[in-house]
Amino acid sequence: MNRLTVEEFKDEKKTPLVVILDNVRSLHNVGSVFRTADAFLLEAVYLCGITSTPPHAEIHKTALGAENTVHWEYYEDTHSVVADLKRKGYSVFAIEQAKGSTKLTDLQLDPKMKYAVILGNEVKGVQQTVVDVCDNCIEIPQFGTKHSLNVSVTGGIIIWEMFKQMSFLT
Q1: Under a CB-based contact definition with an 8 Å cutoff, are residues 50 and 29 in contact?
Q2: 6-165 falls under which CATH superfamily?
């Protein structure tokens, strides 16, 4: 099935995309984001605030070991990782429904750039003070009665679209 070993994964060229989890409560959501990050060779996952960190049985339950392959770091404050990534040349996007946000269907990425996306708390979303320091917000268009998605589902949709646009498939 062409699966990489842990060692091969660590040596493989990474997609220049990182995910920041801003106060995500659910350990299953955290694990699921790790698994998606592994699937698409993301550079890193940054865990911030109340977001739990590995090792943890509930994270492992959905990550299935991806918490051991994907590089991750913990930051007490989300603002710190955003500032660090901006200094390193990343464009930072909050995944949030906000005035002036870019619809995912309209998103145009430069495959030569590096990107970071922030997924927020299951109830409160991305902190407004964090949204305020982002380069923009990306919004997934929704057409039903519930204008919200699970954090890990949102992460999967966003990561896949960005991965495709970054021409990593070729």
Answers
A1: no
A2: SPOUT methyltransferase, trefoil knot domain (3.40.1280.10)
